[in-house]
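User: Fold this, then the next.

Assistant: Folding the first:
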Amino acid sequence: MSRHKVTVVGAGNVGATTAQRIAEAGLADVVLVDIVEGLPQGKALDLAEAGPVVGHDARVIGTNDYADTAGSDIIVVTSGLARQPGMSRDDLLAKNAGIVRSVVEQAARHSPEAILIVVTNPLDAMCHVALKASGFPRERVLGMAGVLDSARFRTFIAAELGVSVEDTHAFVLGGHGDTMVPLSRYSTVAGVPITELLSPDRVTALEERTANGGAEVVALLKTGSAFYAPAASTFEMVESILRDRKRVLPCAVLLNGEFGVDGLFVGVPVVLGSGGLERVFEIRLTAAERVAFDRSVDAVRELVAKLPS
């Protein structure tokens, strides 16, 4: 039985940390690709040399040549410019669209059956770029945002209530950005909605902190953006796909009429298995949630309209 193969495009902090998690879990062999000569090779060698200590036999190789990525089961796209303080996600749009188009075209050509997981921001718009550049069906183009946003929400809920993060579940819909919609009545501690456990103003404060979670880290770091939690979140998606676990995770997927949205990538709960997106979990929204969700969808639509054609 041959091992799974995962290509991670972009050997920066998010890419390298994702490669580390996949290798250390013994989940797949990993190919780290980057345009910078020596960077992926050096990080891959360093990761490989941790293998004897950590106790895994996954192969980790670094390359500047997409031929080495051939036959990948999953391609994770992290390449692009990270947000700098004061920079909006929109500022990144044109620059990262060009990068994502180029890397996806190359990677998809060598692994035509792969599943794409897009991590580059602005996330929802980059998924559109990846879909077009790859020519893949919608089931095989996914965006990583909701898992991260939910993880942040769960972290804040657990801290607020003094409980284990394992007993917190969070539900986040919509675009990855300031308009995301944390659904508090579906966010629970041991099955109890947080709206029953916290005052409305505390709930609102946690929702707002979640929506600005990425910016909070950027402001503290000053020279970069979050990578531990994004890498862990990407790993959770990779693992659900490779092990066919059918996890229900919030991901950005192309909606075809679900939630009343057509032809846009928006974060919704989906079942992730060996085929990628297996189904969308559709839920009924209250009037207020629908207004917030539609506002988020409009923000995504505006971004996509600004994409260089």
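Now the next one, as you asked:
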Amino acid sequence: MKRATREWIEKAEEDLRAAELVIGSKPPLHDIVCFHCQQSAEKYLKALLEELNIYVGKTHDLEKLLHELLAHHSSLGRLRRGLKFLTRFSVDPRYPGKQHTKREADTALRWATLIRAECRTLLKIPPPRRNTP
């Protein structure tokens, strides 16, 4: 695996871990969860592109990234709905005007976790070990 691919994966894992850490916070931080879930999915898709030697552009549009990958990894097609759902969290949660709900945050975390699992499978990376307290 290329070094740059590993770096994308490390960043994707940091975003997903951040989402997991704040999902149950009081007061709720649903916007933060949604944003980090989108970021994790984006970085996992970019890791796949990097490993395939496909230019990794500066975009937050997960469907666009999916389009670049489908010819190489058709199994990602089943995640299209989740990628479309997550794309809307690339910008909105960072600015005033819309507050995201617990339901959106829970759904974003589920999709991000599914996307992570599929990308790790395609990259032949075993599931990460969970830290236990």
